[in-house]
Design brief:
Organism (chain B): Permianibacter aggregans
Helix content of chain B: 10-25%
Number of strands of chain A: 21
Number of strands of chain B: 13
Structural class of chain B: alpha+beta
Distance between the termini of chain B: 56 Å
Protein name (chain B): Outer membrane lipoprotein-sorting protein
Structural class of chain A: mainly beta
Signal peptide (chain B): 1-26
Oligomer: heterodimer
Strand order of the largest sheet of chain B: 6-5-4-3-2-1-13-12-11-10-9-8-7
CATH topology of chain B: outer membrane lipoprotein receptor (LolB), chain A
Domain Uncharacterized protein TP-0789 (chain B): 79-262
Largest sheet of chain A: 18 strands, antiparallel, barrel
CATH superfamily of chain B: Lipoprotein localisation LolA/LolB/LppX
Shape of chain B: globular
Distance between the termini of chain A: 47 Å
Largest interface: A-B, 44 and 37 residues
Order of helices and strands of chain A: HEEEEEEEEEEEEEEEEEEEEE
Order of helices and strands of chain B: HHEEEEEEHEEEEEEEH
CATH class of chain B: Mainly Beta
Radius of gyration of chain A: 24 Å
Helix content of chain A: under 10%
CATH architecture of chain B: Clam
Number of helices of chain A: 1
Number of helices of chain B: 4
Strand content of chain B: 35-45%
Shape of chain A: globular
Keywords (chain B): Lipoprotein, Signal
């Protein structure tokens, strides 16, 4: 081997060593097993009293260019014993982030959260809810987007271009709980002729000013919550999701004053000559060192209101919500959570009790109890009156 | 005998004895001088990054580990900024914590929860609460700033073979979990060797010992081992620091909600 060759070989090997050192990779995720036991006879003959399902959520991340570039891939899949609609998969994230001098650019499928309150996420609109996962609508489908973000002295500005729409997931005919009629998820209706290819836009400014964290946003595009229209398809009566075009202004604010968190979310939504206002707000108060222990007790009271009253698509159109969260602050991160909602229009209630703790370094066990109580057929909760259930989750994190 | 006396009698007696022994004015002044010198010797470090392993042990001897990476930025004339990223236990992996601490007034704190991609502003009045289930309270881990306490010089004492000052520090913040702390500071380098924490009833709650000091940039001392023992519960927490780096190029722009969201 002559000197030039040797030099080249050395240069190459040091280059590849550098490239290797520069790209950081990371892998994490969880697999989970979930069992549900329903406490009453089902409303529909094809529904079961017990349900098992398994899910997996792996995530890969690569970072290079001195961490100014990164790519994240997060997948999700669930197999469900009874509900074909709940056996599903999704790409939660597949996004490249580039951090420039002034602007951070994020391209791909991502998850974005807006808002401050706990019982309802009124202003949170970028991602579609993966509603078949859980009634709390906190699981989200990956949203394709181009997002530019800049941090300035006067706040953070985010511009979103959303080129593709994701339809909401609903439990199938064999699912439990489910709506009283089957949802024709394969035959959605859109107001826009572009259907799911309509390009939506959103703009948000947020800032921290002393004790206040404030966000103001504008959204123009396809509504994430569909109207469910009764329809006959192939001789079967069901509900057809209809996704209108909307314009929405929203404000969310939190004041953090000693042990108190004061929270408010409000929207003004406009559609085809009609408009309405809705708001959700309340407070959270934390008692640190509850009863002379290491535990914290958080108390929450929230109220949700929608101008459309009973015509609202929201579950919280005139609802008072109370919550208590006991965090033991122990080695196992034991937590007990309780939430009660009371609908002031329909006189109905729902209750959630959730306990969780960690076993060892990787396993988290949680037990949830959900009870629904409603006597008025017009109430959304009425459809769940026989679906009280106990749920056990075993989640293994790696 | 001591048990029979109410706490306030003990406090009153101790104060009376202290008042007789040394003029209170002189002890406060000397205490403050020592605190100012401690701070003066730790000014100008700029920014740092380090990794920390936390070992929690309960009374039965069972233990559990947490791993955290911490980026810190010195802020002149105020508390420091920090961004902490949790690597284990696995279920909290990816959770990140942004804190702007302040010399006077409440700190500003945000938590990033990766499962929801949600940033939450959290109350900083939790300063007396445990950090991640450990024996360290949030207030034990924030940067030392002179205005956070008032001071009393108590005595000179030898500790770990070093000549040291023993001072008493009394938190100004009413949300602090302590009535006072007794701090051993070595005379040669003004490094904290030991702290005793007294709870709201002025009973000895915890003892922190700092060992394995290393010097960085030929000036700044950091303890690589910190052991906190809770005398009331029998639990303890050990912090093992590693990979301390200074002058890593961190700037103010690296500490905001956008960097919090992509911290990993």
């Amino acid at each position: 081997m002559n000197k030039t060759m040797m030099g080249l070989a050395l240069a190459l090997s040091s280059f590849s060593a550098n490239a290797q050192a520069e790209t950081e990779t990371d892998f994490r995720g969880n697999v989970s097993l979930q069992g549900r036991a329903f406490l009453s006879e089902p409303l529909f003959p094809n529904q079961e009293d017990y349900n098992l399902s398994v899910a997996a959520q792996p995530e890969w991340n690569w970072q290079w260019n001195d961490r100014r570039d990164s790519f994240t891939l997060e997948l999700f899949g669930r197999w469900d014993q009874n509900d074909g609609e709940r056996t599903h998969a999704d790409i939660r994230q597949a996004a490249w982030i580039h951090v420039g001098e002034e602007i951070e650019t994020r391209v791909g499928l991502r998850r974005v959260f807006w808002g401050v309150t706990e019982f309802q996420h009124l202003v949170d609109i970028i991602n579609q809810s993966d509603l078949v996962e859980d009634l709390d609508a906190e699981d989200k489908l990956g949203q394709p987007m181009i997002n530019f973000s800049t941090v300035q002295d006067w706040g953070i500005v985010d511009l979103y271009i959303l080129p593709y729409f994701r339809e909401r997931t609903f439990a199938g005919a064999d699912g439990r709980p489910r709506l009283p009629l089957p949802v024709f998820v394969d035959d959605p209706l859109y107001e826009s002729d572009d259907e799911e290819k309509h390009i939506d836009y959103a703009l948000r400014w947020s800032n921290t000013i002393d004790v206040f964290d404030v966000g103001v946003a504008y959204f123009d595009g396809t509504a994430r919550d569909p109207l469910l229209l009764p329809a006959f398809i192939n001789g079967e009566l069901g509900l057809r999701p209809y996704y209108p075009q909307i314009e929405r202004f929203s404000v969310d604010a939190q004041a953090t004053i000693e042990s108190w968190l004061w929270k408010l979310e409000a929207i003004h939504q406009h559609r085809d000559g009609e408009s309405f206002v809705a708001m959700h707000g309340g407070f959270e108060y934390t008692i640190v060192g509850f009863m002379e222990s290491a535990a914290d007790l958080g108390l929450l009271i929230e109220y949700g209101w929608d101008e459309r009253d009973e015509q609202s698509t929201s579950l919280f159109q005139n609802d008072l919500l109370f919550g208590a969260r006991l965090a033991m602050n122990d080695m196992a991160s034991s937590e007990l959570l309780m939430g009660i909602s009371r609908d002031l229009d329909y006189d109905s209630h729902s209750l959630l009790v959730e306990g969780s703790r960690r076993f060892g370094q990787n396993l988290v066990v949680s037990i949830d109890l959900r009870l629904f109580d409603s006597d008025e057929p017009e109430d959304v909760l009425y459809g769940l009156r026989r679906d009280d259930y106990l749920q056990v989750d075993l989640e293994y994190y790696f | 005998m001591k048990k029979l006396l109410p706490n306030w009698v003990n406090v009153a007696l101790t104060s009376a004895l202290l008042a007789l022994a040394i003029p209170a004015h002189a002890s406060a002044e000397k205490g403050l001088e020592i605190a100012k010198e401690m701070k003066a010797r730790d000014i100008g470090w700029g920014d740092s990054q380090a990794e920390m392993k936390m070992i929690l042990t309960n009374k039965q001897g069972e233990s559990s580990e947490r791993e955290i990476r911490i980026q810190s930025l010195e802020v002149q004339q105020d508390g420091d900024k920090s961004l902490s990223i949790f690597d284990s236990p696995q279920d909290v992996k990816g959770t990140a914590f942004l804190s702007f601490s302040h010399a006077v007034g409440d700190d500003e704190q945000w938590l990033f929860l990766p499962a929801l991609s949600r940033v939450k502003r959290i109350s900083s009045s939790n300063k007396s609460g445990p950090f991640m289930g450990s024996e360290f309270a949030y207030e034990d881990l924030t940067s030392f700033e002179v205005p956070k306490y008032t001071y009393n010089y108590l005595r000179d004492e030898n500790i770990n073979g070093l000549d040291a000052y023993v001072i008493e520090t009394i938190p100004v913040d009413k949300n602090s979990g302590y009535t006072r702390r007794v701090v051993w500071v070595d005379k040669a380098h003004y490094r904290v060797q030991k702290i005793e924490f007294y709870d709201r009833r002025n009973a000895l709650l915890k003892t922190l010992t700092m060992t394995d000091y290393q010097q960085y940039l030929d000036k700044y001392w950091r303890p690589l081992n910190m052991l906190m023992v809770n005398h009331q519960t029998g639990k303890k927490t050990e912090l093992n620091w590693s990979n301390f780096r200074f002058n890593t190029g961190l700037k103010d722009e690296d500490f905001n909600q956008n960097t919090l969201k992509r911290a990993r």
